[in-house]
Amino acid sequence: MKPDFAEKSRYKTAPKTTVKLTDLLKVEPKKEQTAANEVKAEVNEPFTPQQLQAAWNDFAELRKKFQAEYQLLGQPYEFKDNVVTVHLHNTVQEMMFNGFRLELSAFVREKLKNNVLQIVGELREVEETGRVLYTNRDKFDYLAEKNPILKELKDRLGLDTDY
Fold it and tell me: Alpha carbon of 68 to those of 78, 82, 94, 162: distances in Å?
């Protein structure tokens, strides 16, 4: 079935507009910017490590309801040349830290009034504390290494370390 002419007129098309190239090249002079639109001058007040620690603790208190983040913020960090390096133990901590790092940076910068401060996370391996002592024999051998007199005492008294 062919559309009727009356039916075609029902669909109205937008009027065609033409753009002149000379209109595109016209540039209006810039208006003076108000104080609200001006870019703030960078604020870089000096601060002490104690002030940094206080700001860090304030942010940690705000994140106390997120236990994992709170524990992460309690880990040691290094401060050198306006860079705070947080020591991370695994990739899970790294992902979590990257999730709130920008908020932390903004909070600490605002608190200390210093826009140069940077906060980064560094993945470090945890040093092994030693072997795990499960049996009584392992425990006795470990202590005997530190105190050789224990072996002599065991032999004199006729003790058995397996119990």
Answer: 20, 26, 12, 41
